[in-house]
Amino acid sequence: MPYATQPTASHFINGAYVEDKNGTPIPVIYPATGEVIATVHAATPAIVDQAIAAAKSAQAAWAAMSGTERGRILRRAADMIRERNHDLSVLETYDTGKPYQETIAVDATSGADALEYFGGLAGSLTGEHIQLGENWVYTRREALGVCVGIGAWNYPTQIACWKGAPALACGNAMIFKPSETTPLCALKVAEILHEAGLPAGIYNVIQGMGEVGNALVTDPRVNKVSLTGSVPTGRKVYAAAAAGIKHVTMELGGKSPMIVFEDADIENAVSGAILGNFYSSGQVCSNGTRVFVHKDIKEAFLARLTERLGNAVIGDPMDPETSFGPMVSERQMTLVQGYIEKGQAEGARLVTGGKRVDREGFYLEPTVFADVTDDMVIAREEIFGPVMAVLDFTDEADVMARANDTEFGLAAGVFTRDLARAHRVAAGFEAGTCFINSYNDAPVEAPFGGSKNSGVGRENSKAAIEHYSQLKSVFVRMDDVEAPF
Ligand code: NAD
Fold it and tell me: I need a surface site. Which of 37, 52, 136, 325 has the fewest CB within 10 A?
């Protein structure tokens, strides 16, 4: 292994690496080869306690610093992430198998964007003054306390930053538990934050499976839980947090629609469909995996899509030319293969792909099904892999009803040259994050999140501040207090 992939220790607590080998070993597997590239240990109850205690005792002093001081540290960390983008991207590629071509452009840099954005915002977080005649109320925007972040495996660095940056900007302390599938990158985020001057105990990383996540969520010292994961996990974590009346942000799964009208720019629509189905080998929560294409342009769309997919460079993720890499794990690959078999069994037309790529590692071909109908399993369930379902439509009202007929509401997109229709359709989507003539853009300045079963709360943008702080109202009386007796 040319790169040091074994971390100094499994956990980062109170400003330092910490090890406890009594925890269950978690092998870290490079998806492109199946090789074990590191081993970490799940947090024991003692480690969980140590992390929560460190966060709890450090938080008040952090919250007492001015927002500008806190923000300066976050912005310094953002600069350091950008300076080290190459090394961080290589590590992210080892952790996830995603092509370096993607990780160098998106992963660490979008984490840096969040640290820079919330670092910039920290100094301007205020309450308000509410005049009531001579008396008045002022509000104080206060931190929630100890926040827990729990990550999925598809964007380990980004998720660690998207949760950490607003939490820390608001004066909270965080304990982040990465996915057990991709435990390496969050440790680097912690290391960099501390090098940038973060006080010990404010951003801690501990490893483990669901039970470690659950131990964090149920601890009475924890005030807020932000999860990125699947809907079934979201249900469990939300319920556990509810028992303690904790604040939550839930970033969950999706089965998002993308509607391509007959007047769309086909080349752009094909680009959007490629980005929304095959980037990160399809392992993106907001993907537009139900692609509704107007009957009049369906064959032209499929022909151009197939041609463009032929240009995908499938290979070694470390090669900067590679544009399509493996699935994150053998388990995920097997799950997705099961869906491909279901699609064929249900009578969908396999236009391209469908097979494992003939090489080591967990590679599946980019796969497109056409003639998919709404009731098929591949049109209803989140696959989380490189499988696109193309469905036909002719009528706008009909396609809108079908697009919204899902338990999920994460994202949705529309391709059309008709501006009035574009905005009407966007308004009609039952989804939190929508796109017009584009797909899967996620700038830090815009709220990101889902409706319906896809989640509650928003990440990024000023909206995230509402989810990492609370208001205290202080009534100030200038005249005398009137009492009835
Ligand atoms: P997952 O639900 O299996 O696991 C997510 C995290 O939750 C992991 O860290 C896991 O260890 C932890 N966890 C599991 N059970 C838990 C419990 N009982 N208590 C506390 N923590 C627990 O998801 P995954 O397979 O890692 O990721 C894929 C899923 O994540 C997909 O459904 C995808 O759509 C979703 N996702 C959503 C977003 C978003 O922003 N909306 C982004 C990325 C991924």
Answer: 136
> Contact, 243 vs 218, CB < 8 A?
yes
Both tokens assigned to 286:
């907001």
The C-alpha atoms of residue 156 and residue 161 are separated, in whole angstroms, by 9
Q: End-to-end CA distance of the chain, in Å?
A: 81
CA dist., res. 466 & res. 475, Å (int): 21
Report which ligand 1 atom has the smallest distance to the Cα of 240.
Answer: 19
- Ligand 1: which of 237, 285, 448 to mutate, judged by most atoms within 8 Å of the beta carbon? 285
Tens of pLDDT, residues 282-337: 999 999 999 999 999 999 999 999 999 999 999 999 999 999 999 999 999 999 99
| 387-393 vs 290-294, strand pairing mode | parallel
Question: CA 244 to CA 219: how far, in whole Å?
Answer: 8
> How far is it, in rounded angstroms, from Cα 5 to Cα 90?
10
The answer, yes or no, to whether any atom of ligand 1 lies below 6 A from the CB of 94, is no
**What is the residue type of 155?**
Y
Question: Model pTM greater than 0.90?
Answer: yes
Task: Evaluate the CA torsion angle 462, 463, 464, 469 in order and state its sign.
Answer: positive
Q: What digits encode the pLDDT tens for the residues 187-243?
A: 999 999 999 999 999 999 999 999 999 999 999 999 999 999 999 999 999 999 999
